[in-house]
Known about the structure:
Distance between the termini: 166 Å
Shape: rod-shaped
CATH architecture of the largest domain: Alpha-Beta Horseshoe
Strand order of the largest sheet: 1-2-3-5-7-9-10-11
Number of helices: 10
Number of strands: 21
Strand content: 15-25%
Largest sheet: 8 strands, mixed
CATH topology of the largest domain: Leucine-rich repeat, LRR (right-handed beta-alpha superhelix)
CATH class of the largest domain: Alpha Beta
Amino acid sequence: MNLLSLVIDVAIITSCWGRLNEEAAIETINESKGTQCFHQPESACPPPSDTCHCRRISSRAAICCNVDKSLITKGLSCADIKNGKVIELHIRNATLDVLNVTFSTWRQLLSLSITDGVINRVVGEFGKHTTISCLNLSSNSIDKFDDRSLVNLYNLSVLDLSHNNMMDVPRLKKEGIVTLDISANKQLLCSHLVDALKRTELHFNNENDTFCMSSNTFQWFNSTELVPLNQVVSVHVLRKDCIINCTCEPSRLDIVPGKPPTFALFVNCSNLKLTSLPLVLPPHTIALNVSNNNISSLELLNDEVSYQNLRELYADNNQITSILPLEGSKFMSNFKELSLKNNKIKMLPPYLLSNIFDRNYKYRTVNLGLNKLQCDCTTAKVLKEWLPLKSKHVPDFDEIYCENMESRVLDLDPTILCKGPQDWTDYIYFIITAEVLLLVFLIAKVSYDYWVFKTAGYLPWPASRMPKLPCDWLCE
């Protein structure tokens, strides 16, 4: 009996020890699942002599290696992985033309890793009751997913697509946060990454090693450059945290040698009933649209630091009365386009714009159409002649009107508008000429009188009839 009791005790201890080892292995697996799916090294693979190609690591975890389309089905069956108890599975070195994720075996899993293989694309879609929360498809050369392959993974929290050939981010669930690793995908387009950020709330692993490629055909970019992921994310954050009721969109990619590429922003605050320009613009704002508001002044362009990078301003259909606040501003030195159509501008001093246009800036434009100026003789003589000369800079010069008369500035007639009481400055040249002639005559007369006095000893008339002055003794 003692021997029998000893055998039973040993059996119980062995069984408990086995369960403890198994539970410890599962606990280790679960602890490592924070941002990484269940993963086993190549040394854990079944030996080459094993025709099953799959083996159980514990009652809850398994690994398959060196499989193709037929061997994976056989391996899952012979290792009894379809029994519903295995919730962690790692498949290494799979060679598949397509990976069909409709396979019913995936539904029972919490973690699925298929890595270090050759898979061209992913087809089908996971079933609606699939419980996978961690999916690792890294290092497979995958270049495409079917549109709905992953949308039914409602529990998905970690997705690793690193080291593939992805151009796009597959569609994911709409609610909840997904931690995504999409590093080392050299063909990934920034435009597609931005679309993914719009669809799903994403957090990123290996953010510093993740880059996307700009595109000639996408509105943000004018060159193909690798853009750091943090720049794309920062733009996405700016879009969400833009000025209240305004929209912030990337306008271009600024590339400076020795510095990471940065996005310049276009801020749209049109149709918001604003009475003044926004007090502060987001960093790197180069274009601002405040059309269709009630703005009356442009003074902030000269005062506010956040306007220093502004290159384009669209302020059509407002109440702006003057462009004089722009004089001396950094905006006037650097701007590319200024649009002030249909405002309340009363005066247009040519010198203010000539100073900019005459500096060989060929591509600067100012739109002033439908403004009504206070027209006078100077407008007819000066501005009318100046506008056609600057037509490449003021393309709508023929749409500028007069407020105090029914006429375009281009149609003003100086011979009519300048009639009536004329300013004394109209005779300035005649006055100057008369003064010069009088001065010459006086010099000649004094010289002649002096010559007669020296040669004949008397002064000619009228010098001889002039009364003596207190200073005449100096000449005697």
